[in-house]
Amino acid sequence: MTRQIFILILSIGAVILGGVWESKYLERSCNFVLADVEYTENALNNNNFEIAKSQIKELEDSWNNVKDAWNIFVQNDLIDQIEDSLIELKSYVNVGNKEEGIVYSQKLKANLTDIVNRQKIRLENVF
After folding, report:
1. Does the global pTM surpass 0.85?
2. From CA 30, how far away is CA 115, in angstroms rounded?
3. pLDDT tens digit string along 31-57?
4. How far apart are CA 89 and CA 40, in angstroms?
5. What are the residue boundaries of the structural domains of the chain, listed by start?
6. CATH topology of domain 19-121
7. Looking at residue 96, what DSSP letter applies?
8. Nearest CA to 36 among 10, 57, 66, 17?
């Protein structure tokens, strides 16, 4: 009986630690991507489209580095929303549309932070 209880406690502990590790990983990787989004948005606010275009490439690289790992933890439709927003942002930056570029950078930031908040271990996310 004590062996079964020990295995049960160990299993629950592994699930909780795995959830905490997942949440921390998503938060750290999200911050890297968000930094690139904010840098792009600042370049757009300053009407510097050349810097914004180069930053979009870095943003895509950052996203591609974390996308495969995120596919393991996050629902695919949420990943698709991020990719759609990134494509829209890139297209507006390439044509020099400041206002729409800022809108989609805000949308991208909201999508990223929403995913991280959904994956956090909280009672409201469990039930």
Report:
1. no
2. 9
3. 999 999 999 999 999 988 899 999 999
4. 10
5. 19-121
6. Four Helix Bundle (Hemerythrin (Met), subunit A) (1.20.120)
7. T
8. 57
